[in-house]
Amino acid sequence: MQRGESVGTDGETRERLIESAKKEFLEKGYMKASLRKICADAGVTTGALYFFFKDKEALFGAIVETPLQKLLEYMQMHFEEDSGPKMLREYEHKDGDHDAFTSMLVHHLYSNYDAFLLILTKAQGTRYEDCVDRIVDMTERTYLAMAENMASIQEGMKVNQYMTHWLTHMHIDAFIHLLTHEPDEACALRQMRRIMDFFVHGFVKMALVPDDED
Amino acid sequence: MQRGESVGTDGETRERLIESAKKEFLEKGYMKASLRKICADAGVTTGALYFFFKDKEALFGAIVETPLQKLLEYMQMHFEEDSGPKMLREYEHKDGDHDAFTSMLVHHLYSNYDAFLLILTKAQGTRYEDCVDRIVDMTERTYLAMAENMASIQEGMKVNQYMTHWLTHMHIDAFIHLLTHEPDEACALRQMRRIMDFFVHGFVKMALVPDDED
Amino acid sequence: MQRGESVGTDGETRERLIESAKKEFLEKGYMKASLRKICADAGVTTGALYFFFKDKEALFGAIVETPLQKLLEYMQMHFEEDSGPKMLREYEHKDGDHDAFTSMLVHHLYSNYDAFLLILTKAQGTRYEDCVDRIVDMTERTYLAMAENMASIQEGMKVNQYMTHWLTHMHIDAFIHLLTHEPDEACALRQMRRIMDFFVHGFVKMALVPDDED
Amino acid sequence: MQRGESVGTDGETRERLIESAKKEFLEKGYMKASLRKICADAGVTTGALYFFFKDKEALFGAIVETPLQKLLEYMQMHFEEDSGPKMLREYEHKDGDHDAFTSMLVHHLYSNYDAFLLILTKAQGTRYEDCVDRIVDMTERTYLAMAENMASIQEGMKVNQYMTHWLTHMHIDAFIHLLTHEPDEACALRQMRRIMDFFVHGFVKMALVPDDED
DNA sequence: GATGAATGAGTGTTCATTCAT
DNA sequence: AATGAATGAACACTCATTCAT
User: Fold this and answer.
1) How far apart, in whole angstroms, are the C-alpha atoms of residue D4 and residue D11?
2) Distance from first CA to last CA of chain A, Å, rounded?
3) Between D169, D182, D198, which is nearest C202 by CB?
4) pLDDT along chain D (214 residues), means of 10
5) Which of B2, B55, B190, C100 is most enclosed, with most CB atoms within 10 A?
6) Which protein residue has its CA closest to C1' of F17?
């Protein structure tokens, strides 16, 4: 075998390319990453890469797209069944399964550690660079609805848009911080529960503001 | 005068270059910014740029270095005089000047809006890209000291390293969020006070953990 | 059947490749045409193409070679039996079949419309790119012979090489113009007759020049 | 001098690049021409080329744009002052200066021999590739006007659009043929006069057709 | 102070072609 | 008869940087 003699078994080249790409993207970030280096590291020529992937961004996408889509699905599903102020009650009532969703999210993130690290910190220059913002927006809609629900039963109070946005952002950032600072999943989950307690508390306290303040 | 005929008075070229660079860096980010375009926009050739600045990074530094150093000084000073658990007491005792430091910080950030936006969101590829981390580290040392102080007077409790780090990070991120989402300084300050209340509360609640937990 | 499942009957793949190639070559020209796209359009892989055709040029040849050879044969035959100044007489004497040859030519061109359009306007980069010149050369030999025939019976006149060459070229170009501007064969033939009248007239008038001119 | 040590005198590099480009474009055609080879031949790196020219097409344009614009101006001017059937009369009356315009055209073409050869035969892939068509269109408008003028004074006759278009095309092609087959300007001019006679004759004879024919 | 010219290494990408299976 | 994988050379182009003048 002359061509691809470094290939051990079938269809491995694509896998090797993805593995090399992961390394390079994590090390240098999307923009500074060199396709030539990725190919060299994988032991193939640049042409081979273009057999498997349309372009540089598609290579990046091949690493992150599936885990990201899964994540978005999980969130969408959770938010849709969460039509009432259930989420809050979950925490307040400590009803046992209150953090099933958080557990699942943390597990999904750590099961695709590299992919999410890439999306969250190395995606500048790709169509994923605003990914966090989009997740925040999506989450915020749910939190705003919850806040309005609360406002409707608390006389003289209205929603503080900025604080709701900020709390949402901080909530998402907490997951990012976890991923970038705590490599152990079990540990991460334990901390995340504390953080969630903190956020629920904060949400109750800060999402609303007296009618006469801004 | 053929060369630099758009120069009005002395040393204006450097200023024009910095102004053009600000625009380009803010628009494209450090890495994608083109020195050619900056020079063209400033009405000089690339050679001229290299008379004033050692290289691309030095140009970036010329925009952000001074405001950043000032910020670090402010923080260092504040933290040094804060050798005791004063900061916490400030908030708890609501002694009037409790948020003088926060006000000053917010004011400094908004007085150098562009520079800090660059450092915080467009510095990937420069030596400033880990700037936030360094600020967090610096802040964290003070907060850890405060936490240990608290632990020493609370029987059966110890410092939770991760939570302290995370709270510090969130604190800093709050400033970043402000800068990127709230263009008005007065508004920003108002929100920041709420956030600080939230953090002091969180700190008291989460920085310590029972001796037998992790 | 996974491979080539779109193949209905035997040997159809070759045909589909040729059809796709026609489209691509006509649209982009030989050089800019992409074999990948041709194969994709035909629903096969590039490897398949190389089973049927030696290389890119052979694929082009498979489309144009036969019609071109036929054309050359027709012309050769016509010119050989035309050893005398018959052609001219044909027109001058308007003997009924004077334009039988022209009719046949036009018919052949329009029966292989795509092939001749390719040869005449999209062959840059192939060995057919000088095809027009070769046809002109071949035709010119006959016309030169006719001109010399005429010169031999007209005292004080000699053949004007340049004009003979040019008339030949214009004659061929007339066919090209027809193909590229007049899609209807009947119309084309009608116009061609007018053009031929014009050329015969021109030939009589311009192919010879007084002995003392160049 | 380390850089550009092969430069003999000032500002020569641009000239050398244009000269090398001319050679390469003439030899290979625009599309197959390699910028690397042009640069190597000129003794500079590819970067240098991009200092002088925006891209490949701009390099081509630098060779042909000026001569082409001049030509178009000449033609426009000539056609505008030619509001009547003057052109035809010129030839018919053989009034001495009847071919001043043709002379000028031929002279301009031969004074920029390479440029026009490039435009007319090697421009495939550039924005000049349809240049001949545009010139034909422009010329055709004038010829159509002349034909309509003639038709208005000849009872029972109307303009034959196809023949007018074809005659125009042949007229322009005659210039192209000259350039590609007759290197000597004096010779070219002599032949061109004969050709013009031929065309004027053809125009009178073929541009009109009886009302009842197509 | 600043220009104009040039470098040289690098980029992502495309291509026709090959060949073991 | 055709696939899927891979080659390797080429492509136009961009970049930060240098430096004689």
Assistant:
1) 11
2) 73
3) D198
4) 45 92 96 96 95 96 97 89 56 54 92 96 94 93 90 91 90 91 90 86 87 79
5) B190
6) B55
